[in-house]
Specification:
single chain, alpha/beta, TIM Barrel
């Protein structure tokens, strides 16, 4: 089943009540089109959204620490208690060192959360896959929010990432991110061997979010 992960980031259009409304639209899309949709709101909105929709709710970040004196950190246990099902790790706007990525993946695994590690090139994708997350999402930073899909501007990086992951950790799924907006972008990503997409502004900033999602999911038909 095609996986669509929508990162709410910290946009006004996906914060608080607006974020809840968008999550409900995503739930409707998942039901109507037989897709797996994951919403990724800000941490403060996870509990409210998770209690209101049945689709998975992920966090935008998780720290690889447990209980104790870690003021300001986000623990996997707290996310689980809030109703989250998983977390992004190492998004280009929240970069981590390799040791931190590994600790975050381990924390998610221990708490029973799914993990999606964002990567920016084939080498990083290879290293991330070896750590055993549930997914890696290839996102060249220069294309994020550009409206230029990586599946078209640099299809080789997607294809090579897919092949690298298959060799190292065949159980790890590959998602395609950066610049994904339209149905043709989703189709191109799937044709390159990815299992879905990670996207944000193309949907969040759209004048009609529902219509934008309808256009996107058309690519999975």
């Amino acid at each position: 089943m095609t996986l669509i992960v929508l990162n709410f980031k910290t946009y006004r259009e996906s914060t608080g009540p607006e974020g809840l409304a968008l999550a409900r639209i995503c739930q409707e899309m998942a039901r109507e089109h037989s897709l797996e949709m994951v919403v990724v709101p800000q941490v403060a909105d996870i509990s409210t959204i998770a209690a209101s929709v049945s689709i998975p709710v992920f966090s935008q970040h998780v720290d690889g620490v447990g209980y104790g004196g870690f003021t300001g950190h986000i623990t996997a246990a707290s996310l689980k208690a809030a109703g989250a099902s998983g977390s992004l790790i190492n998004h280009s706007e929240r970069r981590l060192r390799l040791a931190e990525i590994e600790a975050s993946i381990a924390a998610c695994r221990q708490a029973g959360l799914k993990s999606i590690v964002c990567t920016n090139n084939v080498a990083t994708t290879r290293a991330a896959a070896a750590m055993g997350p549930d997914y890696v999402a290839i996102e060249p930073p220069e294309l994020i929010g550009s409206g230029i899909p990586v599946s078209k501007s640099d299809p080789e990086i997607v294809d090579r990432s897919v092949q690298a992951v298959k060799k190292i950790a065949p159980d790890v799924g590959v998602l395609c991110g950066a610049g994904i907006t339209h149905g043709e972008d989703l189709k191109a990503a799937l044709d390159l061997g990815s299992q879905g997409v990670l996207l944000a502004s193309g949907i969040i900033k759209a004048k009609d979010q529902r219509k934008a999602l309808e256009d996107l999911v058309a690519g999975a038909r």
